[in-house]
Specification:
This protein is of the alpha+beta class and 154 residues long. The protein contains one helix and nine strands; from the N terminus they run αβββββββββ. An eight-stranded antiparallel β-barrel has the order 1-3-4-5-6-7-8-9. The longest helix has 38 residues. The chain starts with a helix and ends with a strand.
Amino acid sequence: MLLSAKLFIIEIDKGQYMKTICFFALLFLVLSATEICAAEIPDLLGKWNGSWISYDEGKGLHNMTDNESIIVAFTEQQGRIFAGNLTIMLENGAKLEEGFAGAIGLDNRMLQIAEFDGGYSQGTIISNDEIELIYLNDGENASIAIDKLYRMKT
């Protein structure tokens, strides 16, 4: 009886030992993953250019395929928060300039942008050198656009 009680205690200790090892292994993996995710925030700073297609209430469809029809300059970034300005070349040759601020999502791919004169963009970082934005503006001058942006080489 005494021998079986000692074996039972040893078995309990082995089980507790394994639980402790599993706990610390899991804790190490979680901390390592957190460190990796924090290090992967994309650097958006610099100029990006591209083309856009839009639909504007009262004006219809517009397709600007010239690679310089939109220029986005990311001028400030701290972690996942950024700001900058954009220049859009309109079909009539006029330039529209506007500031913006935004945030990168926790997945380090999704973007949310508020333009200072109105309207919002949601976007996806496709690669280090490519972004797609979808612009939305509601109300009297409703508009929607898809922008394809590419990092300009300096």
